[in-house]
Description:
The chain has helices spanning 28-41, 58-70, 78-85; strands at residues 15-16, 47-48, 87-92, 98-102, 107-109, 114-117, 137-146, 149-159, 162-169, 176-180, 190-191, 195-203, 206-208, 213-219, 228-233, 241-247, 252-259, 265-267, 270-277. By secondary structure, it is mainly β. Strand 16 (241-247) and strand 17 form a beta hairpin.
Amino acid sequence: MNTFDNINDYYINRYGLGSNMAPGVDTLEAFKALIDAAKGKNQWLIFMLHCDYPGNDMQLISDVLDYAIAQGIEVVTPNDGVRVFGSILQSGKKESTYFNVKSNGYVDTNRYSLLERIAPKLETDAPDGNGGYGVPTTKTFNVESWSVGQGMVMEYIMAAGWEYQEFRAAGSDVSFWMRKWDGAKWNDWERMATKLPDLNYTMPAVTLSAQSTLDMTVYDATILADCGHVVTPAGGMETGILWNCWSDGNGALNIRLYNSRKTDAALAQRVWMIKRIN
């Protein structure tokens, strides 16, 4: 059958009728089944005839066409069929390298990753696949009541063993989860690391005694005890000064400086940049 996805404008699928018929598609019942399938799935069914072939089964040809007409099948010219199912642009073969632009603007290619928006799915539905051509494909759809909530899902597909889903919660810029298809079912969702907005803290100038420590506490309501923190002094630090940090419960972060020198260190006023990873 010719479908929107599989049609090759230069090698259109067709069935021999009356002569040169395909194995198993050589009876009235077999042709009726083809016609029913084409009607039910809106496919383009083409019959190929050899007009001068002496062995044509003329009764079969007549019966098949009568059945198609009785089903209300729309009969179109090749131009009309290609206009609906064919490509505006077609280059290459799907067996190798190809680039097609379909009649609705959809790009079908194995030269680039494909992005397609599809209808919502159930949380247990298997990944869609990508036509078997090894094309990296991303499919997106909205969900309302999955176990992770309401939001948008991106499904990443390359080949068997390389199928992932990413869920982003509605109304959030930091909450997203990922899971992998194991060939039979989806593994459990895992919440991914997310970066929270950076903070800046200005430390006043201070003298730090030889081989001693100095603790500073940064207070901010967005500091969370279960986040990781990295602090970096803007413009570098004086020689021999080491530092680390840790959260002191929600809302507070301690920064500890250590002077490893055997002499006092005069530390200039500077900004400390604080990054948080959830």
